[in-house]
Amino acid sequence: MNKKLTIFFNNLLIKNKNQGWTYWDTIGLVFILILSTLVCGMPTLFAKINPKNDVKKFILQINTKQIEYFTYQSKFAESLNQLQINLPTSKKTNNYTFSIKKNTNYAFSYAIPHETKEGSLNNNHPNIHSYVGGVFLIPKSTTNKATSIAIICKNIAPGNIKPKDPIFQQGIISCGAGTTELGKYL
C-alpha cells in the first residue's frame, strides 16, 4: 500500500512536459481538497451554537460523577465539592445556579438560570430553560449488586423555574411533569 501511495504522489508531482493536466491529477487534487476540508472543518460542522449546550454537558458530568461516587462510597454526594467538580466558568454556564438534592435511592442535580442585575433572565437568550438530572438506584437483583440509571430533563417553560424531579416507578425512569427528556442511560 505504501509503495502505491509513493507511485501515486510521484506521478502527481513529476510530470512529462508534454503530458499536461490529466484526469488522475484532477481526482487526486479533489481528494486532497475534500480530505483537508473534512479534517479542518469537522469540529465546526457538528458544533451547535446553543447557549445551553455546556449546561447539559455539566448536568451529564454531575450524573456521571454521582454514579462514580456511589460506586466507591455506597452513598450519593451532597455537594459539587464532594464530587470534586468545579463550577463551569464559560459565559453560557455563568447564567445558571447549580445545586444537588439526594437521598439514599436517588440524586438530582439542577441547573436553574438566575436573573441578571437588570431583572431579566438573560438579554441575549430570553428563552433560557432550567435542567434537572437524576440518578436512581435500581434495586439489587439476582446478582446482588445495585445498579443505576440516569436521565436528563429540560423544563418545557423558559425561565428560572425549578423543574419537577424525574420519576422512577416500576423499573421505568421518566421526566417529571412540565419537563421533556433529553436522554437516559445506564
TrEMBL record:
Keywords: Membrane, Transmembrane, Transmembrane helix. The keyword Membrane applies. It comes from the Bacteria. It holds the Pfam family Pilin_GH. The chain crosses the membrane at residues 27-47. This is Type IV pilin-like G/H family protein. It comes from Anabaena sphaerica FACHB-251.
